[in-house]
Amino acid sequence: MVIIEKAKKHWVTATLYLVFSLFFVVACLVSANTYSAIAKAQRDISLLNPGFDAEIVRKGHLNISFNVQLYNPSRYTLHVYTLSWYAKLENASSPDETVIPVGEDYVGPTQYLEVPAKTTLNYTLWFEVDDPATLSKLFGFINSSHGLGQSYTLETLPYMHDFSIMLIIGEFEHEYLREAYLNNLVTVNLTYSSEEALA
Description:
By secondary structure, the protein is α+β, with helices and mostly antiparallel strands. The protein has helices spanning 2-9, 11-44, 132-147, 194-198, and strands spanning 46-56, 62-72, 78-90, 99-107, 113-115, 119-129, 160-169, 187-193. Strands 3, 4, 5, 7 and 8 form a five-stranded antiparallel β-sheet that branches. A three-stranded antiparallel β-sheet has the order 1-2-6.
């Protein structure tokens, strides 16, 4: 009874208290829902169906390629911050050069690429190997493999592929340097390694 009487006397204060309380509860619910949706997006966004190929093209050059699907089932638009691919041949027969670089591609933050919500995009990256020194090393690997009883061609060599992509959830853009504490929350990092896939 006393509480009701006090509320009647101070109805403005009581009303403001009630309004602010409701606002706080709603803000907490919206914040929790948003955080949950972002965490789910980071779990669900993935790379699918990686594949690679190597073929001889004009003038005996080697064309090496990598393709992968980026699956974005979330409600958010994604911006590609960086994308990189690297292809190599591991050369255990040489103590001096254990890795022969074959091809690479890189897309940096200056190039604006977008991944719309609820889509799957295909990425194909390729590199034409025309450097005589690199081709000579690959042929050297083929010749040394023949001595070990393995039969390779330029197209069938066991190339390794490493792919990585960093995505920013577009609906939550902020000052990335000044508000660095938010960076991990709005960033999705995906990687693929054919070497790890074989392990």
